[in-house]
């Protein structure tokens, strides 16, 4: 299980996030997420999805359901496609990703599309890996940036929003 502590500009408390992947076969897994708000002592987010990987195309596709404490139940589909930019396939990638959500009554819909460059820098120093990500959220027209160093991640966008995550 992957767990992390998260805090952001619009948070009023520390969040504990957990993610687990249950393999269904070599290319497909069931993925569950949960988030606990430490201020109220209750879950604020639950998610379950089936994700399929297509390694020959550097792509993945997922369908699932999400529950938010305030927004209730949402169904979603998401996809991601990577294009290696450098000969070292692990180093620099260009990603296109999208997500489409619809509420439980099939009335409200939300879309998200982003394009981003991701640069993985392994062994900057001994046992120190860094990932830099620069992207653009197409529908909201917001550029964003991420820097990740081993267990720490900082996300910032041009709207003044930020989040910090520490992986346990």
From TrEMBL:
Compartments (UniProt record): Plastid, Chloroplast outer membrane; Plastid, Etioplast membrane
Main subcellular localisation: plastid
According to its UniProt entry, the protein's GO biological process terms are: regulation of monoatomic anion transport
User: InterPro entries recorded for this chain?
Assistant: OEP21
List the membrane topology term(s). Answer: Multi-pass membrane protein
Which molecular function GO terms apply here? Answer: porin activity; voltage-gated monoatomic anion channel activity
Has UniProt tagged this entry with the keyword Ion transport?
yes
Domain of life of the source: Eukaryota
Function recorded in the entry: Voltage-dependent rectifying anion channel that facilitates the translocation between chloroplast and cytoplasm of phosphorylated carbohydrates such as triosephosphate, 3-phosphoglycerate and inorganic phosphate (Pi) depending of ATP to triosephosphate ratio in the plastidial intermembrane space; in high triosephosphate/ATP conditions (e.g. photosynthesis), export of triosphosphate from chloroplast (outward rectifying channels), but in high ATP/triosephosphate conditions (e.g. dark phase), import of phosphosolutes (inward rectifying channels).
The family this protein is said to belong to: Belongs to the plastid outer envelope porin OEP21 (TC 1.B.29) family.
What is the name of the protein in this document? Answer: Outer envelope pore protein 21B, chloroplastic-like
Organism, by scientific name, is: Nicotiana tabacum
């Amino acid at each position: 299980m992957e767990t992390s502590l998260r805090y952001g500009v619009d948070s009023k408390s520390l969040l504990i996030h957990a993610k687990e992947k249950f393999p269904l076969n070599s290319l497909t897994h069931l993925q569950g997420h949960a988030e606990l708000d430490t201020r109220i002592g209750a879950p604020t987010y639950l998610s379950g999805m089936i994700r399929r990987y297509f390694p020959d195309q550097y792509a993945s596709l997922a369908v699932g359901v999400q529950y938010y404490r305030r927004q209730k139940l949402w169904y979603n589909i998401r996809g991601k496609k990577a294009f290696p930019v450098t000969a070292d396939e692990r180093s620099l990638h260009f990603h296109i990703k999208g997500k489409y959500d619809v509420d439980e009554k099939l009335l409200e819909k939300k879309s998200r599309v982003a394009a981003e460059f991701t640069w993985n820098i392994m062994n900057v120093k001994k046992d120190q890996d860094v990932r830099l990500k620069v992207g653009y959220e197409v529908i909201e027209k917001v550029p964003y940036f991420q820097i990740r160093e081993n267990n720490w991640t900082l996300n910032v966008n041009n709207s003044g929003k930020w989040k910090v995550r520490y992986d346990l």
